[in-house]
Every structure is written in structure tokens, then in C-alpha cells.
């Protein structure tokens, strides 16, 4: 699929939805991609099932606190420097890039890198949404080594991380990101085309584009975007989508700490009978109403504007917003015992047992 300028807004909106409140606002990355396309670049998004098994794929992405991203606008060269650092370690040039996560700005970083380097982007990722830590990848669950990792900032500083432990990779890279000012851009999990086919969540960029088209175009078609999403998503590998709460944002407790955006948002029903409290670490982790768990990680919890269905990221939550909370069941590859150990409730210190949406 050749990406067109008119596709970018749809893809960004869908990526924000899949970001589960985190992943960084893709608006900035979308502008970068649009400019690259306007300047004559070509961006090809390729099906993971048809890439050569022996090709080299190097994912690219941003890490850090999304709140900091609002103040530190990337040039795009940061991720390219990170990819070059990985290529130097491997002694080989990347044949393609891809997202590490499809949610938020990390859907757009690989598109910009691809535009600048003239390589394709694989229509897949390692999370099927957004997660806050680097080891929380289907790649890692299936034995892909995360390093060499290249990481760069807006000043041109570059570091390379070499370790055989993906959890250790996260801790080292997070420390570097904090020293870089709270955000950084990286490349990691270099793998073959065969490994992509074996370990990735497939066709997620295409999914993001379709979700965005539903949200942005449904009003023109005089359709309810929430109903359309609830109908469409179960036709994909995402098993279920449903509204779990509706009300007004009455409190936002948010802080930036340790390279993450942490906090809670309280949403009150219009009749004031009950509240929904969503806890987040960059991304939404659990939604509760009283003692009841409405949805929990790894399933997606998205806060959407009640009128437009546009996703609201956690760094842009504000008192008084009228919202609908939608939960989406993730693909089976993200619900296996190994996956839940890597990015289920216990990975975030939550006491709850994962109960999938139904």
C-alpha cells in the first residue's frame, strides 16, 4: 500500500485510539509525515506475509513521557540516527523499518524514517496497541533479542545499548531517556523477515487507518461512530469492542516521574450515581467503578470525546470533558500466559487477575 497524504489523518486518529491514552500524540508525527510526502517522498506499507524471510527489519520509535513530548518537538532525524547506530553494530543496512507499537506517535515515526531513507514500512508491530516499557513486546515473548539498541536525542547525542536481557535493556534505555530530558528516539529488536512473520501483531497500521476513517467519516455518513467501531473491530483480530462508561471528567491526577506519565482520571456519570477511575502509566491500565473492574490491561481502554469519538490522550485530559470510555479486546497472541506475564496486570503491579472482555 502506498501511503497518501489523505490517509495520514485517518491513520493518526486510529493510532491514537489504539494508544490506550498513551503512546504520545501522533499529531506531531503526522505533520512530519505529511511534509515528507508533500516534498515528494514515497512511503510503502508492505504486508508482513510477503516480505523476504532473510530481509533485515529494524523497528524505530519514541520513548519517554508523552507530557514532555508536548514541549520537545522532534525533527525526525533522532530516530534515523538511532537506526544508523544499530546498522553500525550489525554491519548491515536495514531493508525496512516498522513500529514497535502501533499506538500514538510510534505509528508515525517509522513512516517518517522510511520516507527519508527510501525503505518500506512493514504493516505490523510488537504490541498491537501501546505499552510503556521496551520489553513489553510480542517480539520479546517469542525470543527476539532487543539489542543492539540505538538511542538519540534532539541535540544529536547517540548511545548504543548492548545487553542480552530485554528487561535490562529497558532500564538502561529509560535511564538514558531521563538524561536526554524525558524523551528519546530509538531503534531496537532488529530481526529477519521470517521473525517478523513469526512474532509480530500483523496488519495494525492498516487497522489504525480503518479505525481513523470510521471516527472521522462516520458523522459525514450520518452514522454513530461508537456503533460503527463496535461493529467493525470484532471483524478483525480484536475480538470485542464496547462502551463501558460515559460521563464527565471531574478530576485528573497526573505527574511525570521516572520517564513515565503516571496518574488517575476520575469520570462521573451524569446522574452522579457512580464514578469510573482509570489508572495509567503512559497508557490506561485499569478502569474501575467502585469495586468492579470494567476493563484491564492488556485489553485497550480508550477515552473518547462523547460528541466526536476522537481519542483523548492522557496528557490532554482536562476537567469538564464529556467522554465515553470504550474497551477493546486485544488479539489472542497478546493474551497467552507468556504475554500476560510480560504485559498483563501483574507486570504493572496490579493485584487483579486478567479477565478478558466478552
Percent of residues in β-strands = 15-25%
* Number of distinct helices: 11
The secondary-structure class comes to alpha+beta
Strand order of the largest sheet: 15-14-13-12-11-17-16
Mean pLDDT: 94
Task: Could you tell me the CATH topology label of the largest domain.
Answer: CV3147-like fold
Outline, from the CA principal axes? globular
The helix/strand series, from N terminus to C terminus, equals: HHEEEHHHEEHEEHEEHEHHEEEEEEEH
Please give the CATH class of the largest domain. Answer: Alpha Beta
CATH architecture of the largest domain: 3-Layer(aba) Sandwich
- Cα-atom Rg, whole angstroms? 19 Å
Taking the alpha carbons of the first and last residues, their distance comes to: 33 Å
The major beta sheet can be summarized as: 7 strands, antiparallel
DSSP summary, beta strand count: 17
Which spans of ≥5 residues are poorly predicted at pLDDT below 50?
none
CATH superfamily label of the largest domain: CV3147-like domain
- The proportion of residues forming helix, as a percent range, comes to 25-40%
Count of discrete domains? 2
How would you describe this structure to a colleague?
- It is built from 11 helices and 17 strands.
- With 358 residues, it is an alpha+beta fold.
- The chain folds into 2 domains: 5-202, CV3147-like fold, CATH 3.40.1610.10; 237-348, CV3147-like (Beta Barrel), CATH 2.40.390.10.
- The protein has a 7-stranded antiparallel sheet. A 4-stranded antiparallel sheet has the order 3-8-6-7, with helices on both faces. Strands 1-4 form a two-stranded parallel ribbon.
- Helix 1 runs antiparallel to helix 2, helix 1 crosses helix 9 (204-217) and helix 9 runs antiparallel to helix 10 (225-232).
- The longest helix is centred in the first third of the chain and has 14 residues, at 5-18.
- It is globular.
- The protein starts with a helix and ends in a 15-residue tail after the last helix.
- The mean pLDDT is 94.
Amino acid at each position: 500500500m502506498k501511503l497518501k497524504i489523505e490517509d495520514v489523518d485517518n491513520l493518526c486518529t486510529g493510532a491514537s485510539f489504539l494508544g490506550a491514552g498513551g503512546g504520545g500524540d501522533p499529531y506531531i508525527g503526522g505533520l512530519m509525515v505529511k511534509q515528507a510526502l508533500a516534498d515528494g517522498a514515497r512511503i510503502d506499507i508492505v504486508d508482513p506475509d510477503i516480505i523476504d524471510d532473510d530481509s533485515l527489519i529494524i523497528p524505530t520509535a519514541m520513548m519517554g513521557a508523552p507530557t514532555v513530548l508536548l514541549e520537545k518537538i522532534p525533527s525526525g532525524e533522532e530516530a534515523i540516527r538511532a537506526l544508523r547506530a544499530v546498522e553500525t553494530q550489525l554491519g548491515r543496512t536495514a531493508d525496512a523499518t516498522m513500529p514497535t507499537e502501533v499506538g500514538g506517535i510510534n505509528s508515525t515515526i517509522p513512516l517518517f524514517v522510511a520516507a527519508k531513507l527510501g525503505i518500506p514500512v512493514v504493516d505490523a508491530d510488537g504490541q498491537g496497541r501501546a505499552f510503556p516499557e521496551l520489553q513489553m513486546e510480542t517480539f520479546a515473548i517469542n525470543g527476539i533479542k532487543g539489542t543492539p539498541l540505538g538511542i538519540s536525542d534532539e541535540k544529536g547525542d547517540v548511545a548504543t545499548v548492548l545487553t542480552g536481557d530485554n528487561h535490562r535493556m529497558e532500564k538502561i534505555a529509560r535511564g538514558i531517556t531521563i538524561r536526554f530530558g524525558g524523551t528519546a528516539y530509538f531503534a531496537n529488536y532488529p530481526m529477519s523477515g521470517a521473525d517478523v512473520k513469526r512474532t509480530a501483531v500483523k496488519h495494525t497500521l492498516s487497522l489504525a487507518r480503518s479505525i481513523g476513517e470510521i471516527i472521522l467519516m462516520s458523522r459525514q455518513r450520518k452514522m454513530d461512530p461508537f456503533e460503527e467501531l463496535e461493529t467493525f473491530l470484532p471483524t478483525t483480530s480484536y475480538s470485542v469492542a464496547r462502551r463501558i462508561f460515559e460521563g464527565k471528567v471531574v478530576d485528573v491526577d497526573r505527574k511525570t516521574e521516572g520517564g513515565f506519565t503516571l496518574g488517575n482520571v476520575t469520570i462521573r456519570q451524569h446522574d452522579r450515581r457512580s464514578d469510573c477511575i482509570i489508572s495509567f502509566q503512559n497508557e490506561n491500565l485499569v478502569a474501575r467503578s467502585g469495586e468492579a473492574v470494567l476493563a484491564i490491561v492488556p485489553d485497550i481502554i480508550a477515552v473518547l470525546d462523547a460528541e466526536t469519538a476522537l481519542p483523548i490522550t492522557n496528557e490532554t485530559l482536562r476537567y469538564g470533558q464529556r467522554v465515553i470510555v470504550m474497551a477493546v479486546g486485544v488479539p489472542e497472541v497478546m493474551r497467552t500466559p507468556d504475554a500476560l506475564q510480560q504485559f498483563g496486570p501483574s507486570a504493572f503491579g496490579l493485584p487483579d487477575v486478567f479477565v478478558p472482555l466478552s
